[in-house]
Structure formats: structure tokens, C-alpha cells
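Example record for the data management plan.
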Amino acid sequence: MRSPLALISISLALLVASAPGVASATATFPGAIQSDLSLAYTPPCTICHQTSGGGKGTVSQPFGKAMQQNGLVSGDTTALQGALSALEASKTDSDCDAVGDVQQLKDGRDPNNGEFIDGSGKPNPADGGCMGAGGGDGSSDDPRYGCGAQLAAAPLPDTSLPLVATAATILGLALSRRRRRG
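Corresponding structural encoding:
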């Protein structure tokens, strides 16, 4: 027979283990992109995420979504390499400026808007491709990429596990109180 303290400890351990992880970008991805593409700079998290804080499930930039569509999964650097290779092979151009995403990274530019992200201080291009007001250069004949891209929404995270852990914690506490009375 387990003691009430053991039940509480087990319940708390289940709750902590099943709670969603702290939201953060995969810390190894910027360095892995730098290494895989032999870049002289480390790309910022904002090439995939809205903010530099990143966060699991917060990929919002066209390049990040294109990477996900090509097999990128959180924490998997092998999948990252595969997604980069797929984007390079297909010449995916998220900002419709007629320069592929991988080439833009090699040039020190953000594949979402063409701005320089390598710290070179070079002036940013005036035309933002399909991200700018004037649209792209008309080269987006392939509807899978660029201006005509239609990316599927990411699936919603499974929230049932934390609920089960919370229920187990409450049950454990109730059982321990009941045993104290009896």
C-alpha cells in the first residue's frame, strides 16, 4: 500500500511530465542552418518565427512554413537538412523575388523579404517581391511555391495529456485525503 506522500509525488511527476514544454525555437536550428549551408553568419529565428523568441507551434513566416511542408519537425536536425535540400532542389522562393530561399540565405538575406540579415550593413532591396505592395515579378507559375502558395494550417496541439495528468493529480489528492480519514 502506498503512502499519501507517494501518491502525491507520483501525481505531481505525471503532471510535470505531461505538461507542454516551454515554448522556444529549436535552439540548434540556426546553427545547423549555418553549418549545412556553410554560412558566415547565424540566421535569426525570425526567418521562421514572428519573433526572435520563437516557440513551438509559432512558425509564421513563409520560409518556415515551406520548411515544414518539406518535412521539418521540431528538434530534428536531420529533417532540417532534408527540408533545406528539398527547398534548394525545387528553388522555392517564398518572397517571389526570383531568388530561391536557400540562395538568399547563402547571400546573407532573409528568404521572406530579401532583407540582409548577415550583419553586412548592405542596403535592403526596394522590391519585396510578393511580400511588397507591387506583388512579385510574375515568375510564380508554379502554384506550390511563391505568391500562389497555399500552405495547410498546422494541426492543433494535443491538449488531452495535460488534462489527464491534472485529473490524475486531483484523484491522487482525493485518495490520500480519504485514506487519512479512514
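Summary line stored alongside the record: Residues 21-156 form one domain.
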